[in-house]
Each structure stands twice: as structure tokens, then as C-alpha cells.
Amino acid sequence: xxxxxxxxxxxxxxxxxxxxxxxxxxxxxxxxxxxxxxxxxxxxxxxxxxxxxxxxxxxxxxxxxxxxxxxxxxxxxxxxxxxxxxxxxxxxxxxxxxxxxxxxxxxxxxxxxxxxxxxxxxxxxxxxxxxxxxxxxxxxxxxxxxxx
Length: 148
Description:
Strand content: 5-15%
Shape: extended
Low-confidence stretches: none
Order of helices and strands: HHHHHEEHH
């Protein structure tokens, strides 16, 4: 039998304190919980809000375009669309120019729900902006864009 490899506890501390992936994941979870809680009275999660907002365009986007914007694979996006479609907040229709493609549109109910959600999102975002200090949100967005 081979001798088990021991990783020094100091390495665990180093990773805990310096791992960018860990810190971004923790911050993302905290932000998601904050916005999930704020949007809960509307029956939305932060992910559903982002998905619906991504459909608020002058022309219905194709599934691939939305998946790219949200950094999701098409299968995951399709699964995320189903509950919103059941709630009649969006429609999925064939593209008249390419029957293989599907276009996504907000319904009147979807637009009305977004209209209720935007002030909640703005309020929560203002709190986060305050927590991050002057120019903190913009710096963070720019830094995250560099990584993405």
C-alpha cells in the first residue's frame, strides 16, 4: 500500500484566503440569496429575473442568443424557460425565417411582472452599490469582465 499524501493545513488556509474562484463563488451566492429574497414576493428568483430581462428587446431573440448572453448552455436555458412558459410569462415560437430556431418573447404578463420587479432590483442594487463604496460596483464589473 502506498503512503497517503498529506497536504499541509497551511495550504488549506492559503487556498481559503487567496483562491479567486472561491471568493467569486461565495460572493455570487450571497448576491443570489439577496436578490432571491427580494424578488420572492413576485415568485421570481434572481436567475428568472435575469432571464426575463434578457428577453426585453425590440425583437424576439433566438434561444442561442439568450444562452450566450446568460453564459448558459442551450439545454440548461431550455429547462429554465419551462416554468416561466407555464406561468405564461414568455412564449417560445418557431423562427419564421428558420423553422429549426426558436424565438423567445415576453408576454403581457411577463412585461407586467418585470415592471414590478425592476424597482425591487434597483433598490437592492443601490444597497449593494453602497456596500461596495464609490466606484466599487463599476470597478468590480470591469474586473469580472476581464476574467470572463
